[in-house]
């Protein structure tokens, strides 16, 4: 767990990470979970203001981890950052993926379908606080339902248009020092093992950040993790 957390919290979170990875190793493997874990911890420990959002939550397995970290760190983070509460906001069409563009491959319209009930059941099984769930296509839900300030965002939209829409709406609300993790971002130069099945994701990120200052880190794991983190500079520019 983050520095300063108790050993029982650490043991509980580690156990859940193994459990989540076993449930669906293709979508919630340990490489993903551990990188999300430490990136979110670093944002919380830095006192970065704002809520946590996940765009493309599917059945809520990674969402469970994000909420566990929020709850475990709530009191200590609130004292250090002046935050009284941080909410977890989840976004998904719950109708599967939209139609792919020419930049996309591997997945098709309607794939990766889950329900809001699946998400709530995953939270209820672990006794976690109910998240804020926003159903609908990103272009409809994000302009109306994103929190005013975002400290941490996990983007798992799979396709070019979904990632570009996500960045367009999330980045202006991201607090200085905030973090955006993008799944399926494959940079074989910096991460030779990375899975390259969804090339539209990197194309969308490269297009968005061509004129937007950000600190990019390509993350790695023991397997074929394709992950990138984009941090907003401390001056907010």
From TrEMBL:
Classification lineage: Bacteria, Bacillati, Actinomycetota, Actinomycetes, Kitasatosporales
Cross-referenced PANTHER family: MACROCIN O-METHYLTRANSFERASE
Protein name, UniProt field: Methyltransferase
